[in-house]
Design goal:
Layout (H helix, E strand, L loop, with lengths): L2 H18 L2 H7 L13 H10 L1 H7 L1 E7 L2 H8 L14 H10 L5 E7 L2 E6 L1
Antiparallel strand pairs: 1-2, 2-3
Helix pairs in contact: 3-4
Length: about 120
């Protein structure tokens, strides 16, 4: 994740912690993690919970989407004109894969949205 995305995650996590540590808010919004004990998530746990639990993420206004880029998307980033095609105009899969890997073209797209601000990056 890039610096801007990390700052957005920090902001969301700080908001979460501040609200959870507020006694009045806690009384009104007490929640459980499936056991009888209240669970306060640490930063990494909070981020993972937002990635895996859409209801929890929606409650805190943080949306984290990660997905693998297809070979076609990676070729577009690399530049279609840099990849040779065969006589029929098709890319040879293993050669194309080799070229985009060799050029260190990202394999993952990460999108983070918080407070109506969206930041997208590639890894």
């Amino acid at each position: 994740m890039n610096k801007e995305q990390q700052e957005l995650l920090d902001e969301a996590n700080n908001n979460y912690l501040n609200k959870c540590l507020d006694k009045k808010w806690m009384k009104e919004n007490f929640f459980f993690d499936g056991s009888s004990n209240h669970h306060l998530y640490l930063k990494e746990e909070f981020i993972n919970k937002c990635k895996t639990d859409s209801k929890f993420a929606e409650n805190w206004g943080l949306k984290i989407e990660e997905r693998e880029l297809s070979l076609e998307e990676r070729v577009r980033i690399y530049g279609v004109d840099k990849i040779q095609t065969n006589d029929a105009g098709y890319y040879e899969h293993s050669y194309t894969q080799f070229k985009v890997d060799e050029a260190k073209i990202p394999t993952k797209l990460i999108t983070i949205t918080y407070n109506d601000k969206t930041i997208t990056s590639y890894e």
